């Protein structure tokens, strides 16, 4: 088999200094959606509130004729239908997923792509069977290097026609917690989340968890398809090959307190004690600390951390704020053992793996 | 009880001639979402793909302590918990809902609000109990004029603090098909669709179907709250009182053919026979005709109409297109007994009740 090695066709675009969101970006925003932040209240994000990013169209897949192929550098190529996947050992895993482009629309200048603000996140209980067992049954050959995952979604990006396809190193692919999943919160996968079968790579940004998974191919070389070599990279200029996007960096989000103005989303809060509640997560390991600033980032105080719902799930936190009348900017940030979220976001051309501290504008009355 | 009679505080805003989508509009677009048009394939829109518009925050309502009050100009004020509503006569109704602002972001100049393109629609099977029976049980007094519906969602809009509240004439409210609904597609309502109880007013734009319904109040005067008197009106200049937004105007949408480019959403189609598929609906009565143009609107031909899934549900249609290589603009439009969708949209200041014909840009190769 061949996998085309792709460099950029057309470069990604960066918006001009005063350029508003374009029609192209709005088209993406109208299709894909974030999690309204008040849904941070739920341990498991309810149906339809989990963030969704679909690169091309949502494929219309008949579960009765669906097949998953395992091939490439294996002893025996395998094919599974949905029933045979469901009959295999079953694992449930609660996982917080975040889009690698979360925060992109807050960058200056703004990389032109799906224009996320803060909300491209969600947590679900995924049910599936370990990928490693499928690979072991097929028999991975000794020269294996990477595993390529191919979805049923098809389109073009920067002039490159493709099925959505991502590669993962063999070492990452054989982690016990990488699932070939067919249920989300105890229900068959919804169409937009990869029905009938998708990959779940816990701890990684969402691009690794290939939806509408039709083929798993073991390679004797590094996978250099578009989504690995071009799209999901942290680049500092357009000539830069960049670094791959991998694990989710730490982030905390707060349920915006009080109530909103319809158009500006500015919050109105009554003076007095306010219990701030939020969640924090990291794909790099446990969240070790959440900090809150109620003075625009001048001073910070620790939030109280609750119990993390699972190794890959977000962690609840609370903070008691004594709100006094005035205009306030609330900031929150999380830390893991690698460090704390930045208050000023380092920039990259494609707006990937941003994790700038959230800011919420509040009028206390 | 008092219901404040509201005129505009601050006027709604219209974007400048070259003004891109603002951060305010993007914040709304990131929370609220349309139905990706490939989901037109489904008779009933799957969970999470139905359009959502939430004015303020999604309330967090405990179904165990939830209560619905019926009061005002009635003989006996009533209170219902969720179990008592569920114990009442049950009606299932398949309803296509559309946001009154659908198409707003396509207007020139663009009214600044939730920036919908074409996709603010969805169809669900709603289960509930007829409103008219609750009103009859309470005993509507002879001086009744309007019925006000109050939600649990709270915020400000143009300086006016409010619970979301809409009024309906008594004549419209006692229609047999107006439901107090507690299930969507056989499941309890999801949070963003009004859990645990909402109103469904079939045939009307979505603003009438009040979510998180907590109170039904019979009035002896016309309801003049913000959402009726100010927000949902078709106005031609800011001094204009305007006409109320009521029933859904006819609209047809097509599943965009072929496959998309990620960023531009331009479609790529192979030359040859292409089966176009879509849906059409009207809240004013049956869809009588769907027309397709494959030459940018110069000529139109009739699509074949399928069976409408219910009195208030969309109607499927198909059209066989012989695609020849080149750049093509496909347009579709529906008609009901009142007329056909416009190709050029008449403008109004708030971008309400637009139903301009859909245009899809296609490269045939």
UniProtKB/TrEMBL annotation, chains A, B:
Pfam families: Mo-co_dimer (PF03404), Oxidored_molyb (PF00174). Residues 271-364 form the Moybdenum cofactor oxidoreductase dimerisation domain. It comes from the Bacteria. Residues 55-226 form the Oxidoreductase molybdopterin-binding domain. Keywords: Metal-binding, Molybdenum, Oxidoreductase. CDD domains: SO_family_Moco_dimer. GO terms for molecular function: heme binding; molybdenum ion binding; molybdopterin cofactor binding; sulfite oxidase activity. One of its GO terms (biological process) is sulfur compound metabolic process. Its cofactor is Mo-molybdopterin. The keyword Oxidoreductase applies. This is Mo-co oxidoreductase dimerisation domain-containing protein. The lineage of its organism: Bacteria, Bacillati, Actinomycetota, Actinomycetes, Pseudonocardiales.
């Amino acid at each position: 088999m061949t996998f085309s090695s792709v460099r950029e066709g057309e470069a990604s675009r960066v918006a001009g200094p005063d350029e508003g969101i374009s029609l192209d970006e709005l088209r993406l925003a109208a299709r894909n959606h974030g999690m309204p932040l008040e849904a941070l209240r739920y341990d498991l994000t309810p149906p339809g509130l989990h963030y969704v990013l679909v690169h091309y169209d949502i494929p219309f897949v008949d579960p009765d004729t669906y097949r998953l192929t395992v091939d490439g550098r294996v002893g025996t190529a395998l094919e599974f239908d949905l029933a045979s996947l469901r009959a295999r050992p079953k694992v449930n895993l609660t996982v917080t997923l975040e889009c690698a482009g979360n925060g992109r629309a807050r960058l200056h200048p703004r990389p032109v792509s799906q224009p996320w603000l803060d909300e491209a996140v969600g947590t679900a209980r995924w049910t599936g069977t370990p990928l490693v067992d499928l690979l072991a049954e097929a028999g991975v050959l000794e020269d294996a290097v990477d595993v390529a995952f191919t979805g049923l979604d098809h389109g073009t990006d920067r002039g490159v026609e493709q099925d959505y396809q991502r590669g993962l190193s063999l070492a990452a692919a054989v982690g016990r917690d990488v699932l070939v999943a067919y249920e989300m919160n105890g229900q068959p996968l919804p169409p937009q989340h990869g029905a009938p079968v998708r990959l779940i790579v816990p701890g990684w940004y969402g691009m690794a968890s290939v939806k509408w998974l039709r083929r798993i191919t073991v390679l004797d070389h590094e996978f250099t398809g578009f989504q690995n070599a071009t799209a999901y990279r942290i680049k500092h200029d357009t000539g830069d090959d960049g670094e791959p996007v991998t694990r989710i960096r730490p982030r905390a989000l707060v349920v915006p307190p009080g109530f909103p103005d319809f158009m500006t989303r500015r919050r109105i809060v009554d003076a007095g004690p306010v219990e701030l509640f939020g969640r924090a997560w990291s794909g790099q390991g446990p969240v070790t600390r959440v900090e809150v600033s109620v003075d625009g980032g001048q001073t910070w105080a620790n939030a109280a951390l609750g119990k993390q719902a699972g190794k890959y799930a977000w962690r609840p936190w609370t903070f008691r704020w004594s709100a006094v009348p005035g205009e306030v900017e609330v900031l929150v940030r999380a830390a893991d053992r690698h460090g704390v979220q930045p208050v000023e976001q380092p920039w990259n051309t494609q707006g990937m793996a941003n994790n700038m501290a959230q800011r919420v504008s509040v009028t206390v009355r």
